[in-house]
């Protein structure tokens, strides 16, 4: 079987198993095994590939990042920090449109599987002086829950995407993709919020103490401030290609320490007992193993050669492949795991790119995000629509236009980056 088809088979196996009780990380490992068998690379090379991944420091740095992100997220949830932020939004923001968008956006600061179902009741219960239909509530919840996902450095797909940069510098990826977030917010306002009658609502809650709001935000602020400081320091003493990953680990530890100092050390064992934390650790290792087997099958190079020999413009492939993977998987982690090795191979095999990788990764991530937002197996879309008693197909009719404009915006960002960096 051609390696490109083998990768698709491996992805399908992983996604089918994920719909069972098998952890998604184990599903990716088994999908990788199916990929290896279908390409006939043999038992020995497969074991060597898995061993290489498990013995690689980058694997464990990535796994540590993902684990710390979700430990911090769980600690903040257990401490009630999210509730404080949401109550604060309801009390401090009287502009109707801004408040409705801020509730799912605040929840989106803390990465969690199916997070839209956490923010859905908040959007549903928020007081408005006008009646809102469930379709509007569903779209507001779904769209603004995900605006951070293209540039917030706590999201595991971004952590993984940064490892494909030569220096693994998360700050470069965040800076490159920050304009995508601006486009998402602007498009969401124009196509979704603008339909809501404007104006100010009466206060929805007692104004929270400034100290409580500051305490709720402090761990996240600590991570954001500490990351570039650690990055600058570590680049002077260790290999610059490793500094970005270690800097984020250190920054997350600082954020966790700030949270535990303020909320109590007793929250740490409670957070570590959460099954989701360990499932995500297994997922982090599983996707790295899958990626290692992709490398052993030489699928990235073979796919790049197939595209070049077939006459398909590499830029079209760089856009289409993540879009397809995002749509069929409903997971941005799958987009990065499957399509980014092939994007790297395409950039390396084509002189037109000029050897500058970042713009192509940004474009690939944006296209994967579009597929992810439209995916019928995206759990946030399914769960949010179910909560608001809306058909998923009804959401599609309202998502197409904003995502088309986002596509244009992503193209502008890509052209701007290639101009600046080329």
What is the strand and helix layout of this fold?
Blueprint: H1 3-18, H2 24-39, H3 43-54, H4 57-78, H5 81-92, H6 96-108, H7 116-125, H8 134-145, H9 156-162, H10 170-191, H11 210-234, H12 240-263, H13 267-272, H14 275-297, H15 299-309, H16 314-329, H17 332-348, H18 358-374, H19 379-387, H20 392-421
Helix pairs in contact: 1-2, 1-15, 2-14, 3-14, 4-12, 4-14, 5-6, 5-11, 6-7, 6-8, 7-8, 7-19, 8-19, 9-10, 9-17, 10-18, 10-20, 11-12, 14-17, 15-17, 16-17, 16-18, 17-18, 18-20
Describe this structure in words.
With 422 residues, this protein is mainly α. The protein is built from 20 helices and no strands. It is globular, with a radius of gyration of 21 Å. It starts with a helix and ends with a helix.
């Amino acid at each position: 079987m051609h390696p490109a088809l083998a990768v698709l088979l491996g992805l399908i196996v992983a996604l089918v198993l994920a719909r069972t009780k098998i952890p998604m990380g184990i599903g990716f490992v088994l999908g990788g095994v199916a990929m290896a068998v279908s390409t006939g690379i043999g038992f020995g090379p497969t074991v060597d590939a898995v061993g290489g991944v498990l013995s690689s420091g980058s694997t464990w740095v990535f796994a540590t990042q993902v684990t710390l992100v979700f430990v911090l997220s769980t600690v903040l949830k257990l401490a009630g920090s999210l509730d404080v932020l949401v109550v604060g939004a309801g009390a401090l923001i009287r502009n109707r449109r801004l408040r409705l968008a801020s509730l799912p956006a605040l929840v989106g600061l803390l990465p969690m599987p199916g997070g839209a179902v956490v923010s859905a009741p908040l959007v549903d219960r928020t007081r408005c002086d006008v009646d809102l239909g469930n379709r509007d509530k569903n779209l507001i919840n779904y769209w603004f829950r995900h605006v951070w996902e293209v540039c917030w450095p706590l999201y595991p797909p971004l952590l993984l995407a940064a490892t494909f940069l030569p220096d693994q510098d998360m700050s470069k990826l965040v800076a490159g993709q920050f304009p995508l977030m601006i486009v998402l917010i602007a498009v969401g306002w124009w196509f979704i919020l603008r339909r809501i009658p404007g104006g100010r609502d009466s206060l929805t809650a007692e104004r929270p103490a400034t100290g409580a709001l500051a305490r709720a935000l402090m761990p996240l602020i600590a991570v954001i401030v500490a990351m570039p400081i650690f990055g600058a320091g570590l680049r002077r003493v260790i290999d610059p290609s490793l500094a970005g990953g270690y800097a984020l680990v250190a920054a997350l530890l600082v954020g966790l320490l700030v949270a535990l100092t303020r909320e109590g050390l007793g929250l740490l064992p409670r957070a570590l007992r959460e099954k989701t934390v360990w499932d995500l650790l297994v997922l982090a290792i599983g996707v790295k193993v899958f990626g290692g087997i992709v490398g052993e099958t030489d699928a990235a190079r073979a796919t790049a050669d197939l595209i070049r020999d077939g006459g398909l413009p590499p830029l079209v492939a760089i856009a289409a492949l993540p879009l397809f993977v995002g749509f069929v998987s409903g997971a941005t982690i799958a987009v990065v795991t499957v399509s980014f090795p092939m994007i790297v191979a395409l950039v390396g095999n084509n002189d037109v790119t000029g050897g500058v990788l970042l713009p192509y990764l940004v474009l690939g991530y944006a296209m994967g995000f579009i597929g992810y937002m439209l995916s019928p197996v995206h759990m946030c879309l399914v769960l949010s629509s179910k909560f608001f008693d809306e058909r998923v197909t009804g959401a599609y009719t309202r998502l197409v236009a904003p995502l088309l404009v986002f596509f244009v915006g992503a193209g502008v960002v890509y052209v701007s980056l290639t101009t600046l960096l080329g």
